[in-house]
Design goal:
Helix content: 25-40%
Low-confidence stretches: none
Order of helices and strands: EEEHHEHEHEHHEHE
Mean pLDDT: 95
Strand order of the largest sheet: 3-1-2-4-5-6-7-8
Shape: globular
Distance between the termini: 45 Å
Number of helices: 7
Radius of gyration: 17 Å
Strand content: 15-25%
Number of strands: 8
Length: 205
């Protein structure tokens, strides 16, 4: 039986991870090293909450079946980077009720094959693009965004873009409002229309 490390499972979430009542399944591990990481525990080997099998994840989700069906909700896979565990996500989706909605929160900085594998099951994509400028992206995250760009192009050609929400943060010391606008315009040229623009609030040391 394959297992995956999680940083937590959070039940009864409302209006933050897609429609209806959702349960967040948060995987440990991420390819990025963002300067203002919101879930730094996903990078710390000592912060693994539990190693879980597919059946155990399904058992946790099943507890809220009634809420999912009544509200149009379901499961949100997040992290960390959930697409590092694409195979497990596919297994969970294949075994859960079709009525449950599936949302994924991802940076998309993974091989395309992982995106292709989960795409048939995803009802809503929440994509943390950060910034489309390669220099800004690398400066902030520690790696390049070539895979992000390739995966966005694939999504633009293969999924209903009404199901895609793209997060474009204003990141103090890394980008500017003009950079955010430039990212938005580039993404709009690919057909994306739904954006979440906000500013990171950074604690002053």
């Amino acid at each position: 039986m394959s297992t995956a490390p999680l940083i937590g499972i959070c039940r009864h979430r409302l209006a933050v991870d897609g429609a209806g009542v959702t349960t967040l399944v948060a995987f440990h591990g991420c390819p990025l090293r963002c300067k203002y990481c919101l879930n730094a525990q996903c990078l710390d080997s000592g912060k693994v909450w539990r190693e879980m099998e597919v059946e155990e994840i399904l058992e946790e989700l099943q507890k809220d079946d009634l809420y999912f069906r009544a509200t149009g909700g379901g499961v949100c896979f997040g992290g960390g980077e959930p697409l590092l565990r694409a195979d497990m996500i596919v297994e969970v989706c294949q075994q859960m009720p079709e009525e449950w909605a599936v949302t994924i929160e991802t940076s998309l900085n993974v091989p395309l094959q992982r995106v292709e594998a989960v795409a048939p099951f995803i009802r809503q994509w929440i994509i943390d693009v950060k910034d489309m400028n390669p220099t800004i992206y690398r400066s902030y995250s520690g790696i390049d965004n070539l895979r992000v760009r390739q995966n966005l192009e694939w999504l633009a050609a293969h999924v209903d873009l009404e199901t895609v929400l793209i997060r474009l943060p204003l990141i103090p010391q890394y980008n500017t409002p003009d950079d955010v606008l430039s990212s938005r315009q580039e993404l709009q040229s690919l057909g994306f229309q739904h954006f979440d623009e906000f500013e990171y609030l950074v604690k002053q040391s």
